[in-house]
Amino acid sequence: MTTRKTTSDKVEVVENNTDEKTTNTPADTTVETIEFSVTLANGNKVTLEAIKDTQDLDFELLDHAQRGNYATFLAGALTAKSRFLLKNAGAKIRDYETISTAYGEAVGAVENTIDHED
To answer: Burial of 82 by CB count in 10 Å (0-12 exposed, 13-18 middle, 19+ buried)?
Structure first.
């Protein structure tokens, strides 16, 4: 038992029952991803991987999308491997539209409007 004293003469007794075991069952962490290819402005071709269902994205990305921070939203949808590939392939801000449109097409949110590969 744990005893806590208050400023008055009364003593509050709080029971700590440590015999109970809690098991946290991890939620299903498997998220379906999709692959899509893009050609960057510098000519490098990369195949990117992103989360397919926007319902599986991190909750904080909703706030970014609502505030118009679409680049942050897109970065959150891409896997860490894809962000690494983009950095090493020399992706620049000018590639944002190509990448975001290709992602939108891959998830079915945007019609195919740009030829992303030569």
So the answer is: buried
pTM: 0.67
**92 contacts: CB under 8 Å, gap ≥ 6:** 40, 41, 42
- pLDDT tens by residue, 50-64: 999 989 999 999 999
Give the integer Cα–Cα distance in Å for 55 and 43. 33
Strand ranges, E, within the chain: 2-5, 11-14, 33-39, 45-51
Provide the 10 A C-beta neighbour count for residue 34. 15
**CB atoms closer than 10 angstroms to residue 40:** 18
pLDDT in tens, 86-112: 999 999 999 999 999 999 999 887 776
* CB-based burial, 91-117: b 16+ in 10 Å, e otherwise: beeebeebbbbbbbbbeeeeeeeeebe
